[in-house]
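Hi C.,

You asked whether I'd gotten around to modeling the 846-residue construct. I have! Everything is below, sequence then structure, no commentary in between.
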Amino acid sequence: MVEVWINLVAMEQCNRRAGKEPIIDLNVGNDGSNSDSDGGMNTAGENNNEYNFRHNHNGQNLYPPLNKRLNEVTPDEVFSMTFNNIDEAESFYNSYAKVVGFSVRKDDLSKDKDGIIVSRSWVCSKEGIRLQKHLQRPDRQREAKSITRCGCLAAFRIAYKQKLNVWVVKKFNAEHNHELVPISEVQFLRSHRAMSGADKAQADAMRKVGIRTCHVIDHMQSQSGGYQNIGFTPKDLYNYVDGQRRKQIVDGDAMGCLAYLTAKADSDHGFFHKYTVDEQNRLTQLFFADSKSRLDYACFGDVLAFDATYSTNVYKKPFVILIGVNNHFQTIIFGCALLADETVGTYKWVLTSLLEAMDNKKPISVITDGDKAMRKAIKQIFPEARHRLCAWHLQRNASANVHNKNFHKDFKRLMFNECSIEEFETDWQSVIEKYELDGNKWIEDIYDDRFRWAAAHLRGQFFAGMRSTQRNEGMNAFFNEHLTPRLQLFEFVQHYDRALVKLRHAETQAEYDSNHTSPVTNSALVSIESHAIRIFTKKMFSKFREELKYETLYFVRHTEDHGDQRIHILSQHSSPEAAITVVHYRDEEKMKCSCLTFETIGLPCRHIIAVMKVERLQEIPTNCILKRWTKLARGGIYCTFSTEVSNDETEQMRYSALSASCNEMCYLASKCSEGFHEARNEVAKLTYRMEQLCAMYRRGGTDAGVCEGGPRRRPMVQDPDIARTKGNTRSMPTSMPKARRCSHCKFEGHDIRRCPLLGKGSTCEDSNIGSDIHAEGSGFEQPNLYAYKSFSQSHSMHHHSSIPSTQADWSCDSMRAVSYSCDAHIVQEKDNTFDGASQVTEHNLY
């Protein structure tokens, strides 16, 4: 006979999501039917309180007959039931217990001579009593757990009947010697609290995108119709999430982080990562960049900006982001690094790692916040690069060193005024005299560095339109939404990847807008403007249009011909005495302006556009177009990734895809009672089918649709120490940690929970002897022992957290580097020497 049974467990999961406990009438307002409030379990039938049933091949009832609630089942009806396996029997009894109001636990079982189970029992969780010896333990350190057992005799036993190949009921006692739990509190009973695979998958999916656990449980209770319908408690979810975290760092946090990066290298063959360890094999420094970052650097690595930020991980390691600007004038990430300190040697390691990842291509310009260690490292690794100091940091330093708001305005004007060097020098001197700043040490130092911050001295040097590390500050603010001081390393790299995906989505949007939308021309120079629309990205065209708008302010005052060169002298209508020179090299289709705007930002200036109009050019000269700002900046090079992913990632992607596919169906089915019942029936049937399918795959081995690969073997790397940075030092530990003081005996070294006085039977009323006990010679020396232990532990922690921060602190200046070639599985050793670096082992993987 064809089975018409709907798997009870699948139905329970389906109905729990529909809000079945307590029974809630989901049809109120539609057909006017009322629900029963007795706690019967919902099924796929038309009545929400009824159970479907199935027949076995002998026609025997395996579950209560139709229209029979579980709490109305009689002992005779239970004894008439048979089950195909132990799981079905356990599911029935647990469902019965849930409706009645008690919890179930497994009891004894019997096996035959071949070790096959032939009998299994379940009892009420309150069966038995706690032994007296466990209630009066003199060595107890923690408070005893609450008593839950009271000798209840309710039980359920089944036995295997070999002739019929079914399990029959041998014992069923429905009587309890305790009060049963009301339906609103059943959710807290242990046997009725369990996270299903679907619950875990949903929690994993939400946690993966950064949703906090407390918000996950809020979403689930809202989806289920209340906490009572979730099927587990918030604590269960927290325990599951914590268990998943522990699985990822079973070999330690550092190893979990490196394993994640290695897995990324398996799916992204262009992924590069490199790390170092110290003499104790603790992770000290880590650098990584994926294939997209390396491609971006190949196209836009002419300008590099980097800065260190803090409070992104539990080890307080400085987080360095290496950034640039793409052809949409958006910030892009070239790579990032976690550092042990901020010394010259460490920054040199970061820059050499960057060069190694980027095929030894060096930037032509670098922007930093002025850190001295950074400056020295840049000078040694990028000796030919132009170095610019961050304007934002300079303004902040000016505010700290010169307390005059008017000076701050003049200093800002001096920084950004693109005048001649002579004009800058004259203006600077007048400002110094105006505010009487002669002899100010900071003013003298900043003037000596004017070649790195004054626009007058930086004219003609290409910095891609960046004047400060404000993009770094913006990136720090962006990553702070995803990176918190409580993150372990393995969590840090995952959150970083998620933030990077979000950042790159905006780049994809800009690419689409540039290639598939076109701005409307609004100037008289239609041909030139149309040409700019075709070649420049949308963002860069908007900048070009600003120059195009102001070209009308200029007129050609004088023109000279010198063979293939034509020199145009331009003046502004409002300032006819000021002259701008534009040279047109007609044979080379090239123009050069004395304002050096093109050399500085890479776009034709308003003066060049004015000459184009005079020369009657229809398009922008080729030599006035910088490829990095065009739509073809990447030159047709795109990033490719391997499709091989791990089992967990594949399962997660399948779950997410199916969840998205069901959203529309669930929305439509919830509109009416008929649709709701039909959808729930079909989902229950499909759930049962999927359970059978999964069981078949488990019996057959691994999923054939998922490629498998074990992690690469690597030396065991220990977790890093807490880093000491150049940031805020207010929380630095003192030389002597504050001792703990007991509020009862007033001695130091312990608290009231471990007070020896209370441990010896004293009461709180006896505390008037206070701190005189030790003075009276009572022999009480235990507080000193506690104080010694407490100090030893605190001192040890303080000692290990003291990381050298200067070159003199390091005991050795040699670095032994070990480069890993993961593809060839070859280990090579070489000696590298960095200033101020301790003896470390370096691992390079890509």
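If it helps when you're writing up: Residues 127 and 152 are 4 Å apart (CA to CA).

Thanks,
B.
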